[in-house]
Write a structure and sequence with these properties.
Chain lengths: 343, 288, 335
């Protein structure tokens, strides 16, 4: 079965004051239809860059795509006509849930204006983006009302009370959790195939994180929408993902179905990550060493300087090794056996 | 002083800041070497009515004025006046404004508020207007102009310093240092001062530009140093009745003012770009 | 109701600031080398007459008492009498006010209409040829002495080309006075020849006055737009494929303009300061020339009156700007 999203060998550089940072180093990633994939990694590993690269919204001056492909429904997004990409893919086939809901909507316009603007161009009833170039394009009355009904229904689905009144409010009048529900609703309204959610619960209170996550999972599963979900928190991944992919310093390390991932992690880094979750007694087992510089990264597997199993051959990037049909790892020395997850 | 070198190096990479530095350099040269560079250095005082209002030519590069004096030479000596006024006025504003800002930023309560209210009052009136009022009551002279300008510009320094001092106070490390028993003045010296150096420098450079313009305006209105002082603003005022024929008479000093102020503005902008980290276009990868 | 509370809070600063301004001008007007009473009395007055006048005017009383009297008179709208015109200063100022306001308003309109779009376009096409050209204009705008600019414009357009009149507000008879603003009055009474000449006379002074204001406005708008383009909601809109014209002209502009509104207050200050000098250059019969002639005639009371007026207007305008900003930015309403 062809994957919905297939990233192959993606390399992205960033121009910084200190030199050229090789942020993504030939990364590979798959997301299947109706699948929720969690992309796990520490801050600075490249998760957000990958998300933005897929969407095609990397900062134009600073970022450069050096190679690779991003296949979505068979077509390489990196080589598409930008206008088509903007009209047909972004906000329609692939939507986005941002990390910080409090700053992701304009504070000056009521929610209704912003959602309806989205619907004007991206509603499933809008056709295929034809005529989308005309900025003065009027919103046909009939469609407007149909769209508005869909919006109200979506708000009800994400459990926002009194949707009609809520629409008239400004974004800052909502709580953090409610705002993120709004973003979830907006991500679902265009009936996309894939949602890219960039750390959607990081900015929220711990107490409502689980709630939001479960809501998201429920809604996407009901609609058969795939989700690529980035996070630095393993617990979050465990909560709602079907598959987990681990990233480190711009390289993917391991990918497995959630259960297998947490039960039989093979990559030394993954194992360290899982072991570093605080124990019941409050112990913290850190990973020794520092995250490598992206301007002068270590050759081959970028984790090898901190890895206890490293050998000289680790200076060449390991190929993908399939430990099980769905469980792949890129390591010369994958480890066997369970890991105590903070027990 | 490696910090200073870093700044200079970054600055020279910025082309417009470099232009600013060059312009200021030219001004400095003109002012310092006026007696040497002037073709008719005595024309500051002497009159040659027979040579009045001659167009620019071989002997008088920028023509002569209504007294027959060489415009170019007087312009060079005018550079001295301009520089003098600018440096002393801005320097005085700095010396008055910075301590006030520091004190206001350090203390809390009514005294601090009072200081800031006072500076607000001075800022409430456009600088020119207040400077006119002060200069007019004191009478037209060089020291009075400087006084008027200093009295109206100090609030800008006070404000900048006050804001920074407040920001630093809010930082957590200040609380912990005080808890550990450090004297608050030591805190100010060690932590606030380095942070305010940059905004003060930027403000000083931009302030030079504003002050020189206001000084020229005062000179134009007749409130500046009286003749025969070759102050640029006054020269422009003198030239008016001879327009449009003696166009060089009005154009030259105006251009001089323009280039000077531009120099300080460009430098100020360049300094701000280098010294203010918040404005640096963050080109680091924004990763999750 | 919250709006009223907010406005009241801002207003609370108005009185102390104004009072402070009055103290300042009072101190300046009393700390002068020359004797104001002698000036009022005139050159032919004897010392005895001067003393009598001093007692009559209350100048022999202690300073704080004088100050109270000064404020009391101000509250009644009495700024004293001009030594030169022998009329109440308030009357002089009122008579000349329309000319200055008309000039300032026209200059402000010009600078906003030209400045804001230029700033936006300059930000959108950053580092393009247009952007660099605009940057040159803005840098010059802040470095040029307005009085010199005015003189140069006169030199070129009035003297050399003859396209505009040299100075003054009007040639011939003014339109029937309804508001005192020639453009408005001429339009209201259908007096098109007067409208035309008033406009031609306004051209150069308004351009001179507008130039630094325009430069500032372009700078701020450009910076504002660039700033907004970095914000998270713009990122979100891009991620969701909203058409670029919508992102720019609807969302980005609105956010950038919020900060531009505050700049209009700042602008007013620049315009007011510039008005003094510009009026002097163009012989514009406004408050600026009044101030200048008062300076030259050592008419202290008049200069003080002008300073108080200018300061008050400035404070009021800033207050209005604060209030408007509260209205424009709904976030402020909630705080």
């Amino acid at each position: 079965m062809a994957e919905l999203l297939s990233v192959r060998g993606l390399r992205v550089d960033f121009v910084t004051d200190g030199g050229v940072a090789q942020v993504l180093d030939g990364i590979n990633l798959d997301v299947g239809r109706g699948e929720v994939v969690g992309l796990v990694g520490e801050s600075g590993c490249g998760k957000t860059t990958l998300a933005r690269a897929i969407l095609g919204i990397l900062p134009a001056g600073a970022a450069r795509v050096r190679g690779g492909e991003v296949r979505f429904r068979g077509a390489d997004l990196l080589r598409q006509d930008p206008a088509v990409l903007n009209a047909r893919v972004r906000g329609k086939a692939i939507t986005f849930i941002p990390q910080d809901p409090s700053t992701s909507l304009s504070p000056l316009f009521p929610v209704q204006t912003q959602i309806m603007d989205l619907m004007k161009w991206k509603s499933p009833r809008a056709g295929n983006g034809a005529g989308a170039r005309w900025p003065l394009w009027r919103y046909p009355r009939g469609r407007y009302h149909a769209d508005r009904e869909a919006v109200l229904e979506a708000l009800r689905a994400v459990q926002i009370p009194e949707p009609a009144r809520a629409l008239r409010r400004l974004p800052h009048e909502f709580s953090g959790g409610q705002r993120q529900r709004l973003m979830i609703a907006m991500a679902l309204l265009p009936q996309p195939d894939l949602i890219i959610a960039d750390e959607p619960t990081t900015a929220l209170d711990v107490t409502i994180q689980a709630q939001i996550l479960r809501l998201l999972r429920e809604l996407v599963k009901a609609r058969g929408v795939s989700v690529l979900f980035t996070t630095h928190d393993l617990g979050t991944a465990h909560e709602i993902c079907d598959r987990v992919v681990v990233m480190y310093a711009g390289q993917e390390m391991e990918a497995a179905p959630t259960e297998a991932f947490f039960a039989r992690p093979a990559h030394p880094y993954t194992r360290r990550l899982l072991a570093s979750v605080p124990t019941a007694t409050g112990e913290l087992r850190d990973i020794p060493g520092d995250v490598p510089s992206l301007v002068a990264p270590p050759p081959g597997c970028r984790f090898h300087p901190r890895c206890e199993y490293a050998t000289p051959e680790c200076q060449a990037r390991p190929a993908l090794r399939a430990l099980a049909p769905d469980h792949g790892v890129r390591c010369h020395h994958p480890v066997d056996g369970p890991v105590g997850i903070g027990a | 002083m490696s910090a200073a070198w870093f700044v200079v190096r970054r600055l020279t990479r910025d082309r417009s800041a470099l232009v600013g530095l060059i312009l200021i350099g030219v001004l400095l040269l003109a002012a310092l070497l006026a007696p040497v560079l002037a073709t008719h250095p005595d024309d500051v005082f002497e009159l040659h009515p027979a040579r009045r209002l001659q167009a620019p030519g071989a002997s008088h590069w920028l023509g002569t004025d209504r007294m027959g004096a060489d415009v170019y030479s007087r312009l060079l000596f005018g550079a001295r006046i301009t520089l003098l006024i600018g440096v002393i006025a801005v320097g005085t504003s700095l010396l008055v404004g910075v301590p006030i800002g520091l004190v206001a930023g350090h203390f809390h309560g009514w005294f601090s508020d009072l200081l800031m209210r006072v500076s607000d009052i001075f800022l409430a009136v456009p600088q020119v207007v207040l400077a006119i009022a002060i200069a007019q009551t004191l009478g037209p002279s060089l020291p009075n102009v400087i006084l008027a300008l200093s009295a109206t510009y100090w609030p800008w320094f006070a404000r900048v310093v006050y804001a920074e001092a407040r920001v630093v106070q809010k930082e957590i490390f200040v609380e912990s240092t005080v808890a550990l028993g450090a004297s608050p003045w030591r805190l100010t010296a060690l932590h606030v001062l380095p942070n305010i150096a940059s905004p003060i420098i930027v403000r000083a450079s931009i302030g030079m530009g504003f002050t020189i313009l206001t000084a020229a305006a005062l000179g134009f209105l007749g409130l500046g140093p009286p003749p025969p002082t070759p102050e640029w603003g006054r020269t422009i005022a003198e030239s008016r009745e001879f327009l449009p024929d003696a166009w060089w008479y009005a154009t030259a000093p105006g251009l001089a003012i323009f280039l000077t102020v531009m120099g300080f503005n460009l430098l100020g902008d360049g300094l701000r770009d280098v010294l203010d980290p918040r404005l640096r276009r963050g080109r680091t990868p924004r990763d999750g | 109701m919250r709006l009223a509370a907010l406005a009241l809070r801002r207003l609370a600063w108005f009185v102390p600031t104004l009072l402070g301004l009055l103290v300042l001008t009072f101190v300046i007007s009393r700390v002068i080398p020359a004797d104001p009473v002698a000036l009022v009395a005139g050159e032919t007055a004897t010392p005895a007459q001067v003393e009598a006048l001093r007692r009559q005017l209350g100048y022999d009383r202690p300073l704080p008492v004088q100050f109270v009297g000064y404020v009391a008179r101000l509250a009644q709208g009495d700024m004293g009498t001009s030594i030169f015109t022998r009329r109440p200063i308030v009357q002089d100022l009122a008579h000349r006010l329309p000319a200055t306001i008309e000039l300032t308003v026209v200059a402000m309109v010009v600078s906003v209409l030209a400045g804001v779009p230029l700033g936006v376009v300059s930000a959108l096409w950053r580092n393009s040829a247009l952007d660099h050209a605009v940057r040159v204009v803005t840098v010059s705008g802040l470095a040029i002495a307005s009085f010199w600019l005015g003189i140069m414009l006169q030199l070129l357009f009035a003297m050399r080309l003859g396209w505009t009149p040299l100075n003054g507000r009007l040639q011939g008879f003014p339109p029937e006075a309804i508001t005192g603003f020639y453009l408005v009055d001429a339009a209201l009474t259908g007096d098109w020849p007067a409208f035309g000449t008033a406009l031609r006379h306004l051209a150069l002074p308004a351009a001179t006055l507008a130039f630094p204001a325009l430069a500032t406005l372009v700078r701020f708008t450009r910076a504002g737009v660039l700033d907004v383009m970095q914000s998270n909601f713009v990122l979100y809109e891009r991620a969701m494929g909203l058409p670029r014209p919508v992102i720019v002209w609807k969302y980005t502009l609105r956010s950038a303009l919020t900060s531009t509104v505050t700049q209009i207050g700042l602008l007013f200050g620049i315009l007011l300061a510039g008005a003094v000098v510009t009026e002097a250059v163009f012989d514009w019969p406004g408050i600026g020339t009044y101030a200048v002639s008062s300076i030259l005639q050592s008419d202290y009371n008049a200069v003080m009156g002008f300073t108080i007026w200018a300061g008050t207007i400035f404070i009021v305008v800033n207050l209005l700007v604060d209030v408007v900003q509260t209205l424009v930015d709904p976030r402020e309403r909630a705080t």
